[in-house]
Amino acid sequence: MRAPAEPVIDTSPSPGDEVKTTTCYMCACRCGIKVWLKDGQIRYIQGNPEHPVNRGVLCAKGSAGIMQHYSPARLDKPLLRVGERGSGEFREISWEEAFEIATSWLKPIRERNPDELAFFTGRDQSQALTGWWAQQFGTVNYAAHGGFCSVNMAAGGLYSLGGSFWEFGEPDWEHSQYLMLWGVAEDHDSNPIKLGLGHLKARGAKIVAVNPVRSGYGAIADEWIGIRPGTDGLFAFALIHELLKADRIDLDYLVRYTNAHWLVVRNPGGADDGLFARDADGRPLCWDRDANAQAPAEAIGLSPAVVGEYALADGRRAVPSFHLLAERYLDPQYSPDAVSARCGIPADTIRRIARELAEAAFDRAFSLPVAWTDAWGREHAEMPGRPVSMHAMRGISAHSNGFHTCRALHLLQLLLGAVDTPGSFRYQPPFPKPIPPPNRPGKARQANGVLDAAPLGFVHGPEDLVVDAQGQPRRIDHAFSWAYPLSAHGMMHTVLRNAWAGDPYKIDTLMMFMANMSWNSAMNTAETIGWLTDKGEDGEYRIPHIIYADAYASEMVAYADLVLPDTTYLERFDAISMLDRPISDADGAADAIRHPVLDAAQQAPGRDVRGFQSVLIELGARLGLPGLVNEDGSAKYRDYADYIVRHERAPGIGLLAGWRGEHGELEAKGRPNPDQLQRYIEHGGFWRSEVPEEARYYKMANRGYLDWAQRMGFLGHADPIVLQVYSETMQKFRLAAQGHGVLQPPAEHRDRVATYFDPLPTWYEPFEGAQIDDLDARFPLSAVTQRPMFMYHAWGSQNAWLRQIATRNYLYLHPDTGARFGIGDEDWIDVTSHNGTITVQAKFAANVQRDTVWTWNAIGKRRGAWRLGKDAQEGRKGFLLNHLISDITPRGDYANADPVTGQAAWFDLRVRIARAEAPQDSADATSQPQFAPLPMGTADNRPLRYGAGFRTTASRRKDG
């Protein structure tokens, strides 16, 4: 009898017939991916193991990029509004007509007053182009996503350390023994953090998560500290208090690398009070204990004092800045017992954490056997380490006191000697930068209409503010004004109210890219929709023209007058540039590209979309903008890819650092290489250059690093960067508010500037809580949102695969909180803030601090948007807390934002909850408020499947 035939099994099937490497766009992580194609379609997306960001690891979002590309919500052609705003009534037009319309709106603006264009972008990841384009147009009114996302983090770090948390620094994953995660959700930089946490766990390091909610990284932490929102700064000050009391600080580090020993003038009421004492050449002074005399603070071989009051040669009195620091934080108001109740953390826990930090930093100190030379020429045989690291994100940033909280964390790091030492927080190139960074915001137009600098930058003093002769704001968002002086990313969340109100003037055109300002990026959603649709007495819209670019039919599309359909990220070129948001790690500088894995013109019949960056290049050429046209008026760049290769920001410096020079023989600096993009494609889509081994730590004062960074174009000079425990920049503003200097704030801002521009980190009650009478009785709970690891902004929750993980959100509360307010699990409840009420479904979860409720962000959708089915759960039961958040403070005098940077204070929300009157068991119950569905088209209600066609094709091939 013949044995049965064994089936033929392909034990190593290929995912496709072609693979291309590029960069993911499903979050801000920017991981390397391999896209497998079969029969001209995407078959599979996997991580690229060669890529420095993710080393092959890929999350659910990245894998689901297939369904992002094939989303039914994709826009197909340019659209011109024919009905009222919000009606969803458009007609398809050609690109030529779209360009003619846009040019007809923008050209007169450019000729009469470029500031009548407000150009604001969301998650575009190409600000090295968009900001430069705004500069060529000549408008000061440009900003990006960071103003309502991360500017507190960036400014807090850049004005303290010359670098920051977020994606611009990292813990020393290989050597740290103790990691504190402050307000870190799992949406940003997720794969590198996951890889790093794996290293820490494998080595037995302790991980402490400080967050009102325990999810994601906090779930695997060794200890979760459920802090009350907005009190992280107080907790940090209590830790500092304990470290100072116990004398467990690194004074040698402070004197070598910070301004702790610099002398601060004590002259109450004087114009120099609080400024650093300087010699005739402007060099800061210290007090040399050996010579018992003043001396240059940056000299070596001294024994500088860090406490005490001293008489300067000119008779003035001065104290070291550390003396001021110790005076403040040794005050009993910062003791663990004093802050415990406000933070919701037992005093004994605070004391224990302080002890553990000190033990890790000092008792487990170690050195790497790496010789290096410091910036003053001193040779060192080893690199001493402090194995304590910290990482922080939006949980501490998105508060009206967030700037000072970020500075408090940096001060805590500095006291432990735990900045860019082995085992601690590490800079990623091109950081650190001088403090503050040298680029100031543009505010004057040259003869050709171009701004004298990019619209965004860093203010060094009152002279850099973008205000008029009366001290009033010149920008439509009020950034860089006396109300929000250090708003380095602009203030996207204030644009619509101010444009509607004509404050400080009327604009003509609002141009936005990937900024869903009518929905999940709107504070005060209903009122925002009103601003977009409101008309003046003349019957015309108060915001006359809105140009909006996006790849998908988001809520904001319905409110545009002209819609420019973007490609998906797999259909275009992008530059992940060192000039923008680099993908470096602490040991190497890196940048990357995206390139068209698929041809947009072949993805669907009649589809005609263009990458917004290329659209911007062509629009600039049609407008004749300097830098975008040749001398004869012809277009300088063919498209964005051509711009990436040939544009130079400075001689030899372009958007990409790899394979520069005529033949690609140079890196970082060199003439444009016409084959540069092809070199990137051949090398996996990225370039990376190793930091020399002797230059990987102490970057702020390491001669090897400073010289390398200057050669690479990251630094204009190789001088050491002095870390700032005390900020003279802040004191300059305080002095102006006290009546000193040529430029002083208008009367209405003086108290505000004097109060919040403290040269040492401080803490104050978030504005929403401070300005509501009888707060704890009326609104006893804090309410915060977090983005889940499996989604990112609004565009993730229209993805067919990611929606299988969650299609709706709940308001999560601790069971004890439910019992306190008479609420049961899955009850429908009313949630009320000073700004309104929403009705949502509650769900018990023990992973939340008892005075806090929370939900996932950006899952809730407006019905009709994103071409979801008409009964999609995202629109029926999903919701946003945004409806409850006001864009202005309860007092109504300022934006609901940090007074230093203008950062949107999303996480200051206070609410009360009560059982709703709606039927508790009704399957038809929906969250409230509900808005009229947007007629933007809906998807087929049948399940959206993918991949069956490949199996059918394979079967046909086998049968054939």
Automatic annotation (TrEMBL):
Domain of life: Bacteria
Assigned keywords, A-Z: 4Fe-4S, Iron, Iron-sulfur, Metal-binding, Oxidoreductase
Keyword Transcription appears in the UniProt entry: no
Pfam family, one: Molybdopterin
Xref: PROSITE patterns: 4FE4S_MOW_BIS_MGD
Domain 4Fe-4S Mo/W bis-MGD-type: 17-73
Location in or out of the cell: Cell envelope
Known cofactor(s): [4Fe-4S] cluster
Annotated region (Disordered), positions in chain: 918-960
CDD domains, alphabetized: MopB_CT_2
Keyword Iron in annotation: yes
Similarity remark: Belongs to the prokaryotic molybdopterin-containing oxidoreductase family.
The protein's name in its UniProt record: Molybdopterin oxidoreductase family protein
Gene source species: Lysobacter niastensis
